[in-house]
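User: Just a sanity check before I run the rest of the batch. Below are the C-alpha cells for the first item. I only need the designed sequence back.
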C-alpha cells in the first residue's frame, strides 16, 4: 500500500479528521476560556469578599478538571489519525514546525500539571489566596501559549509565509497568525461565557431552593457578560483576519466570500444576530430588577435593542438571490443582485453598528450592575434567551472552523484544494516548488526549502 494512501470506508478520511478536530476544539476552547474566567472570578471573590465568586470559581475549576481528560484524549487521537491518514503532509508540517510543536507539547504538559495542582490545593491555600489565584492565571497562560503554537500552524496552512521555512520567525509570524490568534483568544472567552450563561439558566429553571435560584440567576448574568462582552469585539478582529487572507491567499478569500461557500457567511450573520438580540433582550429584562431603579437606562436599552435588530438585518441580507446554492434560490438566482446585500457599504455598516450598539448596551448594563440586582426574580423567557445562546455559540464555532478549513478547497482547483495553500494538495502532492521559497544554488539549480531536495536544473 502506498504511504499516505490509507482510506477510511464510507465516510472518508477527511470526515474523520474534521470530526476529531471540531470536537477537540470545542473542548479545548472551553477549557482555556473557563480556566481564565474561573481564575478571574476567584480573584474578584478575594477582593470583594462575595461568596458567589468563590463558589462559581471552584465549581468551574472542578468541571474543567473532569473535562480535561476527554479533551486530551481527543487531541492524542487526532494526532494519531493525522499521522496515519496524512503521513506525507504531517512529515512536511513537522519539519517546518518542529520547534513550535515541541513548545506546544511542553505548554500542554505545564497546563495539565498546574490545572490539577490549582484545584487540588484549593483548601490548603485558603489563607494564601493570592498564591492560589496566581496558580489559576498561570494555568490559563500555559493554555494560551499552547493555543498560540497551534494557531501558528493553522494560519500557515492557509497563508504560508513568504520566506524560506528555515526562517523560523517568519513561518511562525506568517501573514495571518496575529489576527487568527486574537480572534481565537477573544472567541474562547465568548464561547465559554455563553455556555456558562446557558448552564446557569438551565439550573435556575430547575432549582426550587431560593438560595440556589439567586446563585444561578447571578451565574447566568455573569456568564453573559463574558459571552456578549467579548462577542462584540469579534467583527473588527474578524475583518482584520479576512483582510489578511485576502491579501495573502486571494483565491481562498474569493472561495469563502464570493464562491461556492459564500453562503456560510450568511449563516454566521444569522447566528450573530440570534446571540446579539437574545443577549440585548436579556439585558433589557434584567434592568427591571436593578436595586436602584433606572427607567432612563432601561428605555435607552430598549432603543438599543431596536438598533440591534436593524443592524442584524443588514448583516443577514444576501448579496444575490442565490441564497443557498442548489437549495434555496429565487428571482434569477446569482444573476439577481440585492442592493442592500453588498459587502460595501452595507455589511460594514451592519457589523460596525452592531459592535457600537453592543458596547453601548454593555456600558448601560455595567452601570446598573454597579448598584446591584435583586437576584432570583428572573422570568422564564429571559432564561430561555440564555439557553438559546448556548447551542447557537456551539454551532457558530463549528461553522467558523469549517469556513476557515474549507477556504483551502479553492473553487475549480483540480485536486480539490490544498492542505497547505498553493503548496500541498489534499492528495499530499507538492505542487509548487516555491512553497514557500526556493533557494538558488551557485550551480544554477534550485533547492526546495521544505525538504532540501533539488527540484530544478541549470541552463
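Assistant: Here's the designed sequence for the first item:
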Amino acid at each position: 500500500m502506498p504511504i499516505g494512501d490509507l482510506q477510511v470506508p464510507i465516510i472518508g478520511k477527511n470526515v474523520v479528521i474534521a470530526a476529531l478536530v471540531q470536537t477537540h476544539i470545542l473542548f479545548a476552547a472551553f477549557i482555556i476560556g473557563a480556566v481564565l474566567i474561573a481564575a478571574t472570578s476567584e480573584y474578584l471573590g478575594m477582593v470583594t469578599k462575595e461568596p458567589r465568586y468563590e463558589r462559581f470559581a471552584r465549581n468551574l475549576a472542578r468541571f474543567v478538571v473532569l473535562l480535561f481528560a476527554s479533551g486530551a484524549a481527543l487531541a492524542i487521537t487526532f494526532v494519531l489519525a493525522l499521522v496515519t491518514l496524512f503521513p506525507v503532509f504531517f512529515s512536511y508540517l513537522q519539519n517546518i514546525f518542529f520547534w513550535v510543536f515541541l513548545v506546544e507539547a511542553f505548554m500542554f504538559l505545564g497546563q495539565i500539571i498546574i490545572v490539577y495542582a490549582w484545584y487540588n490545593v484549593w483548601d490548603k491555600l485558603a489563607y494564601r489566596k493570592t498564591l492560589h489565584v496566581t496558580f489559576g492565571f498561570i494555568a490559563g497562560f500555559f493554555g494560551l501559549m499552547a493555543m498560540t503554537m497551534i494557531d501558528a500552524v493553522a494560519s500557515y496552512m492557509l497563508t504560508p509565509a513568504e520566506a524560506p521555512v528555515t526562517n523560523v520567525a517568519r513561518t511562525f509570524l506568517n501573514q495571518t497568525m496575529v489576527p487568527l490568534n486574537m480572534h481565537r483568544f477573544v472567541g474562547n472567552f465568548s464561547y465559554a461565557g455563553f455556555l456558562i450563561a446557558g448552564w446557569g439558566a438551565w439550573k435556575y429553571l430547575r432549582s426550587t431552593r431560593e438560595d440556589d435560584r439567586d446563585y444561578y440567576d447571578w451565574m447566568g448574568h455573569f456568564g453573559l457578560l463574558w459571552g456578549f462582552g467579548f462577542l462584540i469585539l469579534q467583527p473588527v478582529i474578524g475583518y482584520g483576519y479576512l483582510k489578511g487572507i485576502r491579501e495573502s491567499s486571494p483565491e481562498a478569500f474569493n472561495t469563502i466570500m464570493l464562491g461556492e461557500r459564500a453562503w456560510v457567511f450568511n449563516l454566521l450573520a444569522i447566528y450573530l444576530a440570534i446571540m446579539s438580540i437574545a443577549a440585548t433582550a436579556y439585558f433589557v429584562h434584567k434592568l427591571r430588577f436593578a436595586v436602584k431603579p433606572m427607567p432612563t437606562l432601561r428605555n435607552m436599552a430598549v432603543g438599543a435593542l431596536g438598533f440591534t435588530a436593524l443592524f442584524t438585518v443588514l448583516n443577514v441580507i444576501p448579496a444575490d438571490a442565490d441564497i443557498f446554492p442548489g437549495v434555496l434560490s429565487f428571482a434569477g438566482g446569482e444573476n439577481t443582485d440585492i442592493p442592500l446585500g453588498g459587502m460595501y457599504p452595507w455589511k460594514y455598516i451592519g457589523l460596525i453598528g452592531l459592535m457600537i450598539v453592543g458596547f453601548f448596551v454593555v456600558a448601560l448594563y455595567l452601570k446598573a450592575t454597579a448598584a446591584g440586582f435583586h437576584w432570583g426574580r428572573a422570568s422564564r423567557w429571559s432564561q430561555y434567551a440564555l439557553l438559546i445562546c448556548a447551542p447557537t455559540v456551539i454551532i457558530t464555532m463549528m461553522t467558523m472552523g469549517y469556513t476557515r478549513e474549507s477556504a483551502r478547497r479553492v473553487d475549480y482547483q483540480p485536486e480539490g484544494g490544498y492542505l497547505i495553500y498553493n503548496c500541498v494538495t489534499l492528495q499530499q502532492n507538492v505542487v509548487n516548488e516555491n512553497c514557500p521559497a526556493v533557494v538558488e544554488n551557485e550551480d544554477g539549480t534550485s533547492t526546495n526549502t521544505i525538504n532540501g531536495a533539488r527540484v530544478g536544473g541549470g541552463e
